[in-house]
Amino acid sequence: MENDNNYCADLYNTSLRFRLLRQHHYPVDPDVFNKFKDRNGRFMEGMNKDVKGLLSLYEASHLSVNGEDVLEEALKYTTTCLKSIESHFDIILAKQVQHALAIPLHWRMPRIEARNFIDVYDRDDKKHAVLLQLAKLDFNLVQSIHQRNLSDLSWWWSDLGFKEKLTFSRDRLVENFIWAMGIAHEPQYSKCREGLTKFICILTAIDDVYDIYGSLDELELFTEAVCRWDISATEGLPPYMKTSYLAMLNLVNIISNNIKRDHGIDVSRHIVEEWKNLCKSYLKEARWFYNGYTPTLEEYLGNGWTSVGGPAAMVHAYFLHAENISVESLHCLKHGSELMYWASIITRLVDDLGNAKDEIIRGDVPKSIQCYMKQTGVSEEQARQHVKGLVRSYWKKLNEESVKSILPKSMIEMIINMVRTAQCIFEHGDGIGTSHGTTKDTAISLFVEPISIKRT
After folding, report:
1. How many whole angstroms from its chain centre is CA 366?
2. For 353-382, what is the mean pLDDT?
3. 43: which strand partners?
């Protein structure tokens, strides 16, 4: 360490390089941070004065996997240091620290963070004006593509007629598009975004059928019809169930036919299997509810990772975005199941942390927090802290699987983005069941208001 400036730059740059490589799924060794420890194995005292370096190390530590003690120590150390000094430096850096301590960058939705960082960087006296201008132009251009996606989807949603035929169901087209856009925001994935939004809209309606409207006998009939997967299975279903059933069949047929036309391969059985699994998981939760049964946390999560819709969403995303689909790529998809599992588990837990009370009021089964309370006898706050601990632990598994996975990197990123989007949507409560507050502000900033660009 030649001097303090070099030392600080080294901490910042080492942490930044480590984070970027890990984000792109390279297995970088965390031992690079041992050089910042003293002879006693503790982080050096001088580090607590380097706010940018601490912040960079804090962000890097969230890309750890199980067994990486140096990153666990780094997280504890940086969190303590940043909390103790967050009010002692300039307002821009203070906001960045508060933002990071609330939710780390690795857990945040990329599109929202792009806008946030542009706003922060715009107030930086040392900003690169041309680079900032390009970032604003890029954001606005991509936003215009998202606006066209939403416009096309609005026509589809209106023609579908769910608002008139399924009046009990949530009318949340824009919120569902936030989900799809969060998973695949890049401009080249318009087809994927629109297809995913349609999937989520139909899933939401069917979820409401199971949660708040259908009787148990009707739900048994509907699940049986899904397992048969035939238009003749609609006989005997109530009219409202026929509407959602036919919409589901039509969506799968359109996606499968398009893929067969473009790639010469029939993927329908893979998509249909996910819908069957999804509806069977919904039925299991409905049986729990009608029987007044509260499962253990393990039993709940064993079903909940499917009922959250993660596996079905990711299979749809895979086929909607892939440029080349072959028998080999289907084999690749099967081997991505571990990554999808951990992503879906975290999505389930984050969902529960945000909206468990709202869903129970609407008539849903007890969620992970209530299951753990019943199982162990702890308070609600203790249960919430336990679930938050599981989220932190499972992120390590997700990080590990993202490095090991043989899926295309674009697909790995979409799977991780699903978790990030869930974190965004449920950070301040139920971001889907309601269409106001933070979710409305998010939609306006992402789809309505472009970033102002000053002419030079």
Report:
1. 22
2. 83
3. 37
- Find, among 273, 280, 429, the residue nearest to 356 by Cα: 429
Amino acid occupying residue 355: N
Convert the pLDDT of each residue in 374-421 to its tens digit: 999 999 999 999 999 999 999 999 999 999 988 889 999 999 999 999
How many H helices and E strands in the chain? 20, 0
Among residues 349, 355, 359, the alpha carbon closest in space to that of 305 is found at 349
pLDDT at site 363:
56
pLDDT at 361: 57
314 close to 339: Cβ distance less than 8 angstroms? no
pLDDT for the residue numbered 88: 65
Instruction: Work out the burial of residue 269: count CB atoms within 10 Å of its CB; fewer than 13 is exposed, 13-18 middle, 19 or more buried.
Output: exposed
Fold of 4-107: Glycosyltransferase (1.50.10)
φ/ψ of 212, rounded to 5, equals: -130, -10
Q: Kindly report the length of the chain.
A: 456
Residues in Cβ contact with 81 at an 8 Å cutoff, skipping those fewer than 6 apart: 47, 48, 54
b (16+ CB within 10 A) / e for 31-45: eebeebbeeeeebee
CA 80 to chain centre: 27
Could you state, in order of their start, the residue ranges of all structural domains in the chain?
4-107, 139-448
In degrees and rounded to multiples of 5, residue 37 shows phi and psi of -105, 155
Distance of CA 408 to the CA centre of its chain: 18
Closest CA to 366 of 430, 311, 299: 299
The pLDDT score that the predictor gives to residue 309 is 96
φ, ψ of residue 43 to 5 degrees: the values are -65, 140
Side chain identity, residue 225:
A
Contacts of 139 (CB under 8 A, 6+ apart): 114, 115, 118, 450, 451
Burial 379-410 (b: 16+ CB within 10 A, else e): eeeebbebbeebbeebbbbbbbbbbebebbeb
Rounded to whole angstroms, the Cα distance separating 37 from 399 reads 25
**Hey, do 4-107 and 139-448 end up sharing a CATH topology, with the first three levels equal?**
no
Owner of token pair 């132009």: 137
CATH number for the domain formed by residue range(s) 139-448 = 1.10.600.10
Take residue 197 and report the two structure tokens written for it: 């939004």
User: What pLDDT is recorded for position 1?
Assistant: 34
Whether pTM > 0.90 for this model: the answer is: yes
C-alpha 203/C-alpha 109 separation (Å) is 22
Over range 37-49, report the average pLDDT: 87
Mind listing the pLDDT tens digit for each residue in 318-350?
A: 999 977 787 777 877 777 789 999 999 999 999
